[in-house]
C-alpha cells in the first residue's frame, strides 16, 4: 500500500485558473487566504481538498446513498471532479446573488472556489480538472487536455478518456436501477442484510430522515434480478410485512425485490453520469 502524503504542506503560491477558481499546491495560511479574498473582493471563498479524494478518505456519496455494484464507484478522480463541479455551481449562484445585490454595473465575482492538493497529487488533479472541463462543461477533449496541461504542468493520459466514459456509463446504469429502502416503523437503529447489499453477512445501516420520519437508504448499482433481504431493527431480525415477502426452505420470511435492466451507454449517458454525481456528491 502506498504511503499517504499526510497533511497538506504550506502553499507557496495560489494560481487563478478562472475568475471563480483558484488552485494551490498545498494549504495557504490565514494571511494568504485573507490576501486572496481582499484582492479579488470575495465575500465567500469555498475550499476543497482534492487530496482527500486521491487518498480515498472521501467516497463522494452521502451516508444515505450506497453503491452496491460489483465494482467500487465512483472512482476517486470522478468523485473529485463531481465535488469541484458542484462547488462551481454554488459559486455561480453566489455570484449571481452578489450581482443582484450590488446592481447591474457591478463587476467581478463575490464567490470563488480554492482547490487545494498535495504536490504529489498533481497528476490526479489534472485528471479531475479535465473531467470537469469535458463532461461537466462540455469542452472538447483535446481543448480540455491542453488547458489542463498548461495549468497543472502535466497532461491526463488520453487513454483514460474511454475508461472514464465507461465508468460514467456504468454509474448511470447503476443509477437507473436505484432502489430506496424505507423502514417507517420506528427503532433506534435499522440495518439491512441480504442479497440486496452483498450477502447475509453484510450489514448496511439505514439513515434516519427526520423530514419523512422514517429510516431510509438508497442503493445504486444493483444487479438485475430477484434480491432477498431483511431488516435488523435494534438488533432483531425482521421483515416488512407490508412489502413483498417470500418464505425460504426453513420457513423464514424474507422481503424480496426484483430489479430490472439498466439503460444504454454513449457519450450523452456519460455526460449524464457526471451531472448525477455532482448532484449526489458529498462535499464534507
Automatic annotation (TrEMBL):
<dbReference type="InterPro" id="IPR013783">
    <property type="entry name" value="Ig-like_fold"/>
</dbReference>
<protein>
    <recommendedName>
        <fullName>AMP-activated protein kinase glycogen-binding domain-containing protein</fullName>
    </recommendedName>
</protein>
<dbReference type="InterPro" id="IPR032640">
    <property type="entry name" value="AMPK1_CBM"/>
</dbReference>
<feature type="domain" description="AMP-activated protein kinase glycogen-binding">
    <location>
        <begin position="179"/>
        <end position="260"/>
    </location>
</feature>
<dbReference type="InterPro" id="IPR014756">
    <property type="entry name" value="Ig_E-set"/>
</dbReference>
<dbReference type="Pfam" id="PF16561">
    <property type="entry name" value="AMPK1_CBM"/>
</dbReference>
